[in-house]
Amino acid sequence: MKRSTIVEIIALLFVILFLYTGISKLMEYDVAREQIALTPLLAPIAGVIVIVLPIVEIIVSILLFLPRTRKLGLYASLALMMAFTGYVGYILSYNAELPCTCGGILQQMSWTQHLIFNGVAIVFALTAILLNRRIHSDALHSEAALAQS
Questions:
Q1: What is the per-residue pLDDT across 78-136, written as a single tens digit (0 to 9) for each?
Q2: pLDDT for the residue numbered 40
Q3: Contact 100, 87 (CB under 8 A)
Q4: Residue 100's pLDDT is what?
Q5: Residue 5, burial from CB neighbour count under 10 angstroms (0-12, 13-18, 19+)
Q6: b/e for 99-125, b at 16 or more Cβ within 10 A?
Q7: Which residue among 78, 87, 98, 143 has its CA within the 20 to 30 Å range from the CA of 41?
Q8: What is the pTM of this model?
Q9: Residue range 20-79, pLDDT digits in tens
Q10: Closest of 69, 117, 63, 111 to residue 89, by C-alpha
Q11: 3-state secondary structure string, the chain?
């Protein structure tokens, strides 16, 4: 399979994930706000997070969808997944009985399952970033070779 195809598949998976969770949070605004407010770390800013996070997820989806901004979208995906993983780690150390605020059917996962899911997503994001770098590096080398001949 071509590197570019793998990057596109990973980007599409993140688009689906972030659109799904972002839209779910917006559609279930009151529930999401209540769940975020249960976490002492986020309670003071629950009102802001419940609006900003889904918007950020949707913006990252758009970045990933557009070829010109895909690189930025991949880095943003990695950052989001690392932040979510840190949050899951906090929840596991604080109170694993708190409800998930991720939205939709992903709420059915345990916190440990979330940790594994996020770990896999981080590996996917890193893989796409590295492959994307290699694609662009190869393209630059090809252009340089053509210019020399």
A1: 999 999 999 999 888 888 788 787 766 788 888 899 999 999 999 999 999 999 999 87
A2: 86
A3: no
A4: 80
A5: exposed
A6: ebbbbeebbeeebeebbebbeebbebb
A7: 78
A8: 0.88
A9: 999 999 999 998 899 889 888 899 999 999 999 999 999 999 999 999 999 999 999 999
A10: 111
A11: CCHHHHHHHHHHHHHHHHHHHHHHHHHCHHHHHHHHHCCCCCHHHHHHHHHHHHHHHHHHHHHHHCHHHHHHHHHHHHHHHHHHHHHHHHHHHHCCCCCCCCCHHHHHCCHHHHHHHHHHHHHHHHHHHHHHHHHHHHHHHHHHHHHHC
Q: Copy the structure tokens of residue 119.
A: 């770990």
The encoded tokens of residue 39 equal 């976490």
Residue with tokens 């839209």: 23
